[in-house]
Amino acid sequence: MSDLAAPSPRHFGDRLAARVAERESQLVVGLDPDPERLWRALEPGPDAGGASSRADALAQSVLDHCRALIDAVASQCVAAKLQLACFERLGPAGWRVLFDVAAHARSASLLVIADGKRGDVPVSAHAYAQALVGQDEPPGAAGAGLGADATTVSPLLGGDALEPFLDRARRAGAGLFVLVRTSNAGAADVQDLELSDGRPLWERLAEMVAGAGERGARSGLADVGAVLGATAPEHLARARELMPEAIFLLPGVGTQGGDVEELGPAFGPGPAAALITASRSIADAHLEGGGPPERAAAAEAQRLRSLAWSLSG
Amino acid sequence: MSDLAAPSPRHFGDRLAARVAERESQLVVGLDPDPERLWRALEPGPDAGGASSRADALAQSVLDHCRALIDAVASQCVAAKLQLACFERLGPAGWRVLFDVAAHARSASLLVIADGKRGDVPVSAHAYAQALVGQDEPPGAAGAGLGADATTVSPLLGGDALEPFLDRARRAGAGLFVLVRTSNAGAADVQDLELSDGRPLWERLAEMVAGAGERGARSGLADVGAVLGATAPEHLARARELMPEAIFLLPGVGTQGGDVEELGPAFGPGPAAALITASRSIADAHLEGGGPPERAAAAEAQRLRSLAWSLSG
Q1: How far is CA A216 from CA A10, A169, A190, A207, B240, in A?
Q2: Could you read off the pLDDT of B224-251 as tens digits, one per residue?
Q3: How far is B7 from chain A (nearest CA, A)?
Q4: Closest residue to A140, CB basis, from B42, B125, B205
Q5: Which of B7, B27, B28, B29 has the alpha carbon at shortest distance from B18?
Q6: Rounded to a whole number, what is the distance in angstroms from the first to the last CA of chain A?
Q7: Where are the beta strands (DSSP E) in chain A?
Q8: Within 13 Å, how many C-alpha atoms sit on residue B272's CB side?
Q9: Contact residues, chain A, for B206 at CB < 8 Å
C-alpha cells in the first residue's frame, strides 16, 4: 500500500486507493432520490402543461436535490453511488437527470458508482456495459454511455454474463462490484442456501469474485469487488478470507441497521479495501436532528467518514 | 381453460390466455436493437451538431427500426419483449425511444414485456416497479412509468425483493417472469449449483416462483412466471412439474440454438402456458434468406408461430 502518490491511472484499485488516501475517506454518498423526500418539495405549480410538464418539473426538482446533497457532503466522501431505479422511475426525463447528476458528482471530484445490479446474457450484458461503463459507443453516438467509474452487477447468470462488463471496465480503468451477500432481510432466501459441500451459496459467489479480479500493481487491490451488506457484519471476516484483494462495497449503514463500528474486518488489506455507503441516513439526517438539511447531511457524513477512517487506521 | 371469451380484465394469466387464444400465437418478438444491425443504416449525415445530435439521430434510427419490425411481425405475435439494455445504451435519448417503442407495440395490439431482469433491495425494487410496471407514480408525474404488461426480474435478492414488483404488478393486472434457468452457457455456473438436498439451485428458484404466483380464475395460469432458456429443453419437464401453473417465457430460440420442436413439455397446462421469444432470428432473417427485411422477418415469425401453435394444440 506504499507509493500511493503516483498511481497507475488505469487500474480501478489503484485509482480508488489514491483517491481514498487523498481524501481520507471511504464514504460513499448514496443518491436514491425519493420524490416524497426531496429537500425542497416540488411546487404544485399551475399544471398547465399536463403530465409531461409535471414529469419535467419533478425531474428538475430531483436534479436540484441531488446537486445540493452532493455539494453538502462531497468534501467528506470519495464517491457517489447513483441508484438507477430512482432515476428510471422518473420516466424518460430521469435518464437525463442521471447523466446530469453523474456530471455534478464528477465536478465535485467524486467517483461515480452506477448502482444498477444489472445481469443478463452476454449479448445484453455487453449493451449494459456500453450504457453504464463505456463512453465511446455505440458507433455514431459518442458520449452515449454514462462512463461510471464502477458499476454493481449480478452474478446469477454466471461467468460469461460478467465478461462483457469486465472487458469494458478494464479498458476504461473502471471497477465492478458483484452482488455477494446483500443487505436486505430476504438475502438469506437464496444467497445463504446451503450447497452440497456444506457452504452457503454466497461463498461460491465470493470465489467467483476472487477469481475474476486483477490486482492493481500499486494498491494490491482488485478491479472486481463485492457488494456485502453492512447489516450482516458476521460474514465480513469470512468474506475477507475468500476475497483477500477485493474492494468491499458495504451498503446498509444507518437506516438499514448496519453499524460502522462492526465493519473492521473489511479493511484488512488497507484503507481503500472497503467503501461504506449511506443514503437515507445522510439525506434524511435533518428529520432526526432538525436544522437545515445541508448542515445535517454534512454533519452525518463527517461522523460516518471519521468513524470509518478510524477503523481502518 | 374454457370460457376464454370473457376473461377477467385484471389477472395477467387470464389476460394472456385470452390474447393467445384470439391471436393463435405464443410468439414474442424480441426487440434488442443493435445500432450495427438496423434494417436501415444510420446515415452518416453532416455531423454539424456534434455528439448530442448524432445520439439523437441514432435514437431516431433505432425507433424507426423497431416500429418497422413491429409492423412486419405483429400479426404473428402476442407480445413484444423490449430488451432494456439496448435502449439504455443509447443514453438519455434511449429511454424516450423505449417508451415510444412500447406505445407502438401497444398500438399494434401486442402486450409489452419489459426485459430488464431487475433485482434490488425492497426500497429500490419498489422504484423499479414504479419505473416499469406502474403508470401513476411518482406523485406529480402521471405517466412516468412504462406501464409494461409484464417484466422480467431476478430472484437473487430473495422474497422481500420480489414483493414490491408483485404488489404493483398485481394491482395493474401485470405479470412477472422470474429468472429460473437462463439461456446462456454460463447459466450453469450458479443456477445449476448443487444444493445440500441434492437438487440444483434453479429448482429452488422454481419453487419460489410456484409459491409466489396467484392463479387466474379463468385460465388457471399464475401471474408469476419463469424465464427458462429454450437452449436447455431437458429441464422443461421438471420445471413444469415444479411450476404447474406458471407461464414460461422461453428465450433462446433460433440464434442462441434453441429448437421450438423440443419445447412441448412447456405447454402442458394449455396454449398460453409458454411464450416463445425470438429476437435476432426474426430481425436478421433477411441476412440468411435474402429479400427485404420486413418480408423475411414476417416469414420467420409466421414459421415460428405455426410451429409453436402446433406443439400446443
Answers
A1: 9, 14, 32, 18, 47
A2: 999 999 888 888 999 999 999 999 999 9
A3: 31
A4: B42
A5: B7
A6: 13
A7: 27-31, 79-83, 111-118, 150-153, 175-181, 224-228, 248-250, 274-278
A8: 26
A9: none
Identify the band that residue A233 occupies on the pLDDT scale cut at 50, 70 and 90.
confident
The amino acid at B222: A
Q: What percentage of chain B's residues is helix, strand, coil (to nearest 5)? A: 50, 15, 35
The answer to whether the Cβ–Cβ distance between A141 and B58 falls below 8 Å is yes
At A251-284, the pLDDT tens digits run 978 777 778 888 888 998 899 999 999 999 999 9
Rounded Cα distance, B261 and A44, in Å: 57
Q: Which of A135-149, B5-19, B27-41, B56-70 has the lowest mean pLDDT?
A: A135-149
Q: Which residues of A touch B201 (CB under 8 A)?
A: 190, 193, 201
Whether residue A191 and residue B137 make contact (CB cut-off 8 A), yes or no, is no
- Neighboring chain A residues of B57 at a CB cutoff of 8 Å: 140
Cell of B242: 415444479
Q: Which of A86, A120, A139 sits opposite B85 (nearest CB)?
A: A120
Asked whether the beta carbons of residue A141 and residue B198 sit closer than 8 angstroms, the reply is no
Is residue A117 among the annotated active site residues?
A: yes
CB B308 within 8 A of CB B276: yes
> What 3-state class would DSSP assign to B217?
coil
At A169, phi and psi to the nearest 5? Answer: -60, -45
Positive/negative CA dihedral, A160, A161, A165, A168: positive
Q: Residue B133: closest CA among chain A residues belongs to which residue? A: A89
Residues of B carrying an active site annotation: 117
Quick one: cell of A78? 470519495
The one-letter amino acid at A231: T
What is the rounded CA–CA span in Å between residue B280 and residue B34? 10
Tens-digit pLDDT profile for residues B126-135 = 999 999 996 6
CB contact under 8 A, B140 and A57: yes
